[in-house]
Sequence to fold (354 residues):
Amino acid sequence: MRSMASGAAFHRAYRRATQQAFLEAHELGFQYLGGAFRRLRYDNLGSAVKKILRGFRREETARFIAFRSHWNFEASFCTPGEGHEKGGVEGEVGYFRRNHFVPVPAARDLEALNAMLLAGCREDEARIIDGREQTVGEASAIERQHLLPLAREGFDLVEVSFGQVNGLGCVKVRTNAYSAPLLPGTQAQIKLSAATVEVWYEGRCVARHERSYGRHQQILDLEHYLDVLEHKPGAFAGSKPLEQWRRAGRWPVSYDQFWSGLMQRHGRQEGTRAMIELLQFGRRLGYARLRRAIESALELGCADAAAVQHLMATDGLVHQRPSLLIEMGSLLSQYERPLPEMHAYDHLLVGAGR
Fold:
């Protein structure tokens, strides 16, 4: 999304160019720019246009009509095949790609990539477009005063459905299955957005996954299976949730090193069970804290789960000297006296000998 007047732009990435992603990006763009434009210009994409009629007339999709009515803006569309009619957007894409995508950035996940894109948008506010005197950010601040105010509530973009947890601890969404920490047979509410799938139960979100646009996929979170695997440690090493954690970068090398030490010390079954217990601690106290504790234990040459638990419990604690002792120390310093010299008494002893 780019403003013709100020040149300010908003960029966001999605795995799939769905209508849901298209509309969500609008709302995020409005929030970034501080208001909604009175008129937006588009090419004839299927998320907005159902049928191209004669001239500039278009039959818009019902969802798009409802969305722009909610935000109170008008839409106009380019002549088919004449993309240069919105050349400002095309030029913006090229500029942003050359300045922020060369070399191609590496991101942990889609959320991290969008954080990088947002940082690039803010960075570009400092540039001055050729032929202008103000920076993009300064022009955008002036333009913001003339935009339509943000709606009090966003448009309802989330698709809500209900599903039952199956015997594998998953709920089915479209053609894919997503894990949830609920008992089989539980009826859960599912909220589907352009980038995420959330599983809700009794008014709270119990699971959140990145949405998969593949078909017949299983998206599993190891955290949801720790209770079961603790009773069946033999299934842990070859489990699919562990494999997915490895692919996602959530299982660092230090975990394998410490796990190996536990198995050497306690045997395969008990060592694996001890590792699962540590993951349970990580679920409660945070996996970043667990990783620091495990890496600290490895540096000390320790392969004891109890030591890792102790390091996790004491992580971040700062032991400060009590202020009362500091005050007492400065108060008593006035009574300090030098130690007596005892060698003078030797003269008395010499005199007594005579």
User: Anything to note?
Assistant: The two ends are 110 Å apart (CA to CA). The chain is about 45% helix and 15% strand. The longest strand covers residues 204-210. Residues 46 and 319 are 62 Å apart (CA to CA).
